[in-house]
Amino acid sequence: MRIPCPHCGVRDAQEFSYLGDACLQQRPILPAETPIDDAILDQWHAYVYLRDNPASDHRELWYHQGGCRQWLIVARNVRTHEINGPAVPASRMGRVP
Amino acid sequence: MRYSIVSILGQALRGNRDWKPVWREPTPKAAYDAIIVGGGGHGLATAYYLAKNHNLTNIAVVEKSHLGSGNVGRNTTIIRSNYLLPGNTPFYEHSLKLWEGLEQDINYNAMVSQRGVLNLYHSDSQRDAYARRGNAMRLLGIDADLLDREGVRKLYPFLDFDNARFPIQGGLLQKRGGSVRHDAVAWGYARAADQRGVDLIQNCEVTGIRIDGGRVTGVDTTRGFIGAKKVGLACAGNSSRVAAMAGLKLPIESHVLQAFVSEGVKPLIPGVVTFGAGHFYISQSNKGGLVFGGGLDGYNSYAQRGNLPIVEDVAEEAMALMPMVGRLRVVRSWGGIMDMSMDGSPIIDKTPIDGLYLNAGWCYGGFKATPASGFCFAHTIARNEPHKLNAAYRLDRFRTGRLIDEKGAGAQPNLQ
User: Fold this and answer.
1) Contacts by residues A23-26 (CB-CB < 8 Å, ≥ 24 positions apart)
2) How many Cβ atoms sit within 10 Å of the Cβ of residue B344?
3) What value does the mean pLDDT take over residues B91-118?
4) Could you give all domains of chain B from N- to C-terminal order, each with its CATH number?
């Protein structure tokens, strides 16, 4: 599998490390004064543990540790490993983990 | 027909012309008391124990392809119960006990072979961890022997004891562990369930789960709607997809795990050996091929085939453990899709929807659990409450913090 890095070009997937679903970039908001209630725990449970886990196109976070050392968002079909379009720098998509 | 020496000899004398199909091919009824989604090892075992232990016989197993076409035919056939944590150890020990009596119970030769599972250790701290695990097992009456280097050498003289990076210091041996003919497990449970009246419906993919007022009423399939008072999901690898039909989102990612088999050779490896300095294990099948595997490819996949970096990694570990395998050719490799739960442990539980039950999240270890998984899932479905053996395998344990992180080997929780 090869991943098209926007900075380094098409590179072997071994240069990258995988984090997971890119939809999970926004942490639930937790202002300091708010008492922790069930609704907040539900949000954190969903953020930390629950996954859509689709069997088709999947937007996911990869870190190019063997290259530009940037976080990328890659759109990959998890049945065929086809990568749709160039990877996008994660910093443009929101908060980077 | 009951299999015995008499039936085999009788058939042989008649030229083997009178063997009948082993199970029926029924057309689905309009409705059942319970439907199990997934005709793999766990689903078939569940159907069998529902019929045998709970007298529920108006039930069906629906399978999208043929019986045993998923991970029950794609694993490396190892059975063991060498677990540390309280939620796990009694469950897997019960599974091993069911394996020990399985062939008599279902009248089917599953080639259960208790040839021993040896986990090697390569450092002082790993020895201490294994001693702790062995002690936890022995406290529950499970066999465990901590071997030193010479003890391992007696069993496996051909290992690379003086490997420059990972010299072998010893190992934790469970003699009652071993291997089982994996396809025969699916076929044996299928035949035994069919004989007790369970309908095994193949080539019947579930396309929807019908829910009315928070209660399951049946499943839509490629062969039409089938009504059911209770529906049990046992479709690991695709659990997230099927559960999504009921509006559930699971703490699971699907990953591909590869396995390999070499050309056949004369008896070489007496039992199952695991490499403690990586993720690698190897044994020899009854046909003579060496069966081995390693870790996950490491990213979400439903592809049932893996990539080359893991092939290289597994080959390196094989060479570090027993250099003589370098002379053998690999003849096949394949991948299976694992339900990777977020703590590395399975889920056997009710769901928030009445009448819908979930058996999922088996990670690397679903095969050895097959009998106990079926036993506990059948109990959970029939009684509408978990058996004490699967009481810890709750769906809501991630919400409540009661994780069972035996090895810390699940998918990655999003902790950043």
Assistant:
1) A23/A52, A23/A59, A24/B414, A25/A61, A25/A90, A25/A93, A25/A94, A25/A95, A25/A96, A25/A97, A26/A94, A26/A95
2) 20
3) 97
4) 5-77+182-251+343-400 (3.50.50.60), 113-177+253-341 (3.30.9.10)
Cβ-Cβ contacts under 8 Å between A and B: the total is: 76
pLDDT in tens, B274-328: 999 999 999 999 999 999 999 999 999 999 889 999 999 999 999 999 999 999 9
B chain contacts of residue A60, beta-carbon cutoff 8 Å: 299-300
The domain spans of chain A are 2-26+38-92
- Chain-chain contact of A20 with B300 (C-beta, under 8 angstroms): yes
Which chain A residues are closer than 8 Å to B309 by Cβ? Answer: 13-14
Q: Does B339 touch chain A (CB under 8 A)?
A: no
Residues on chain A touching B410 (C-beta within 8 angstroms): none
Whether the per-residue pLDDT at B96 is higher than 80: the answer is yes
Q: Give B-chain residues touching A54 at CB under 8 angstroms.
A: 240-241
Give me the long-range contacts of A9-14 (CB less than 8 A, separation at least 24).
Answer: A11/A64, A11/A66, A11/A67, A13/B307, A13/B309, A14/A66, A14/B309
Quote ipTM for the complex.
Answer: 0.91
Determine phi and psi for B42, rounding to 5 degrees.
-70, -40
Pick the residue with more confidence: B400 or B407?
B400
| DSSP per-residue codes, A39-89 | HHHHHHHHHHT-----SSEEEEEEE-TTTT--EEEEEEETTT--B-S--EE
Tell which CATH classification among 3.40.50.2300, 3.30.2270.10, 3.10.20.440, 3.30.565.10 matches the domain A2-26+38-92. Answer: 3.30.2270.10
| A93 pLDDT more than 60 | no
The answer to whether the CB of A24 falls within 8 A of the CB of A95 is no
Q: What per-residue confidence (pLDDT) applies to B414?
A: 67
Q: Spell out which chain A residues touch chain B, with contact meaning CB-CB distance below 8 angstroms.
A: 1, 13-14, 18-21, 24, 41-42, 45-55, 58, 60, 78-81, 97
Task: Tell me which residue has tokens 């769901």.
Answer: B351
Please, what sign has the CA dihedral across residues B71, B75, B81, B84? negative
Query: What is residue B390's predicted lDDT score, i.e. its pLDDT?
Result: 97
Beta carbons within 8 Å of B47's beta carbon, 6+ residues apart:
B36, B59, B61, B189, B193, B198, B200, B374, B378
pLDDT tens sequence across B61-78? 999 999 999 999 999 999
pLDDT at A96: 45
pLDDT tens for residues B135-165?
999 999 999 999 999 999 999 999 999 999 9
Total residues belonging to chain A: 97
Q: Is B310 on the interface with A (CB under 8 A)?
A: no
